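hey can u run this one w/ zinc ion bound, need the C-alpha cells asap thx
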Amino acid sequence: MSVYARPIARLVEELAKLPGIGPKTAQRLAFHIISGTREAAEDLAEAIVQAKEKTIYCSVCSNLTEADPCPICTSPGRDQGVICVVEEPKDVIAIDRTGFKGLYHVLHGAISPIDGIGPGDIRVKELLQRLQDDTVQEIILGTDPNVEGEATAMYLARLIKPLGIKVTRMAHGMPVGSDLEYVDEVTLAKALEGRREL
Ligand code: ZN
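ok here u go:
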C-alpha cells in the first residue's frame, strides 16, 4: 500500500511520467502543488490543457504553433532561401537562440532502422514539397550528432542534392552522440557558422 493518500499518489505518478522527473522530484512537485492555493493548482492544470489543445503543427514547417502558418514561416525578416532541418520543435528554440535568421523544417524524429523508424515515419515528404519552387537555395541539416541524426542527414542529402539545392551539415565540435537541445548557444552558433557542404 502506498504511504500517500490516493490523490497524492496519483499526482506523483503522473508527474513522474514526465521526462527528467524522477520519483523524488515528482514527490517534491506534488507537495509543492498541494501546499499552494487552489487557484495556483487550477492555473497549472488549465495551462497544461490549453497548451495541449491550442497547439497545432504548422502546415509549412511542422513546428508547434498557435497560428498556422507559424510566426517564423510568415516573418518578413527571415531569409526564405535557407531552411534548417531539425528533429524536434525544441531544436528550433535552441538554434533560434543563436540568431539564425532562416526558416526551419521539423522532422519529428530521425531515421532509425533498429526502432523501425523509416523516412515515411518522419516529415520528409513535407520537406520535399517545400522545395518544389526555386525559393530555397540551401538546406542546412541540423539533425542531432548521433547515429540516427547522421543517418537522417545522409538520407536527406542524397534526396535533395540532385534537386540542385546546396546541402550543408552543421559542423561538429558538438559533442558526438549528444542531443542538440543540450548544446550551449556558442557551440551551436559555431557549428552553424562552420557548416560544410555535403
Ligand atoms: Zn512554420
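The chain has a mean pLDDT of 92. anyway lmk if its weird
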